[in-house]
Amino acid sequence: MRLLRAAETLLLAALLTASAACGSRLPESAFHSSAPAAGGSIRVGIIAGVTSPVGGDAFTGPGEGARAYFAALNARGGLDGRRIEAVDCDDGGSGIGNNDCVRRLVDDERVFALVATTSLDYAGAAQVSRAGVPDIGGQPLGTAYDTYPHLYGIYGSQSPRDGKAPGWGGTLYGGTEVYRWFKREQGARTAAVVAYNQAASAGYARQITDGLRAEGYEVVPEQVDFALPNYRAVAADLRARGTDLVFDALDSHGNAKLCEAMDAAGVRVKAKVTNVQNWNDRVGEDFAGAPQCRNSLWVTGSSRNHADAADPAVAEFRTAMRAAGHRVLSQWQLEGWAAAMWFTDAARSCLPDLTRPCVERFLERPEPYTARGLLLPVSYVPSPDPPATRRTCLSVARWQDGRGWVTQGGEMTDNCFDVPQLPYRP
Predict the structure, then answer these.
(1) What is the pLDDT of residues 83-105, one digit of tens each?
(2) 15 CB-near residues (< 8 Å, 6+ apart)
(3) Which has the closest alpha carbon to 322: 86, 50, 68, 62?
(4) Measuring CA to CA, which residue among 225, 261, 224, 217 is closest to residue 243?
(5) What is the mean pLDDT of residues 75-79?
(6) What φ, ψ does residue 92 adopt, rounded to 5°?
(7) pLDDT confidence band for 29 (50 / 70 / 90)
(8) pTM (predicted TM-score)
């Protein structure tokens, strides 16, 4: 698991809620018969917190991408002549709502699989696992995809996933490739880490700080009062310190306010490194009050830049999203599209005998999955022991007014490093 990828997706969930659950693997015979009727449609469920406390569009991207993929697939005749029917459920961003969605989709709707799950509080994860329903390509907003069998997050995992604890006995590991990249490509040596005086934010900041120090950075810690944010004071200190990079453990609103304060204070940095949730086409609007900082925004990830229209697979995604009526595109939409592709490729490999165990054999095969090059190689081959080092690659993009998100550093499969794997407890 990649440290920054894992930490940034955990932050939003941890700021608002926390959940824990347990489960166990059932024998294959318990779910082997759960195959779609021959010749009928194949029903899949999509869970997202559409009406979550953090806003109506915070978690909708992956589901939008998945539905666009299935619509395009059905327009071409479906999967061997069978339509993919996507059944949506809004869990409201709550654990109670999530449990209700899982019960409705698994017990009532009898979906064959879940795809592109985006749950702020995945309280129903144990139920999904017990039912043996493959959950494919979900966003890891918690630790479920590093805990339970039958759950396959979009970024992969080497964890044992025995249903008892996330990772290896409750400890997860991630690399320092993001910090290594900025050191190599931009010669960065100092980095500020901005966090709220709040437990989840502070915990995320510690993970960033540990990774930066492991790569030899001088780290400048900055704290923002959660109740009465003092962004101007933070920006003034950033200017005085002359840091190269700025990382943060803030939400999207805090990110924008920090950028406005940095512009007002005349702060100039090599990169303001934001998270994947800001990797969208709304940057010009969301950061309208901070043109200098806006054009210093960089983002790293594990999937190909959704704005890279020259890539055939990305171009296909963009065309389908426009056909589905989406004018503002995002990285999470692309990852939802890739999740739907992952399910479809797994199901196609099983025809004509489509069963859940067959689909999971595809997901757990030794050959990593890349979704036609949209994803860095994803694998679910477990390791009995956590790796001390790992070769890890990353996708990098930078926002530029008039051009949008511009890919940096060349091909993402070439942005690779052998980096240490640092432990953390979620």
Answers:
(1) 999 999 999 999 999 999 999 99
(2) 198, 200, 201, 251
(3) 68
(4) 217
(5) 97
(6) 70, 10
(7) very low
(8) 0.92
pLDDT for 151-182, tens place per residue?
999 999 999 999 999 999 999 999 999 999 99
Q: What sign for the dihedral angle of Cα 346, 351, 357, 362?
A: negative
Quote the tokens at residue 101: 């969605």
In degrees to the nearest 10, what's the CA dihedral of 326, 140, 114, 336? 20
Q: Residue 270: pLDDT above 50?
A: yes
Tell me the CA distances in angstroms from 190 to 182, 238, 286, 306, one per residue in order: 11, 11, 27, 30
**Residue 143 contacts residue 177 (beta carbons within 8 Å):** no
Phi, psi for residue 328 in degrees, rounded to 5: -105, 115
- Looking at residue 321, its amino acid is M
Here the contacts of 326-329 (C-beta below 8 Å, separation 24 or greater) are 326/64, 326/68, 328/280, 328/281, 328/282, 329/280, 329/281
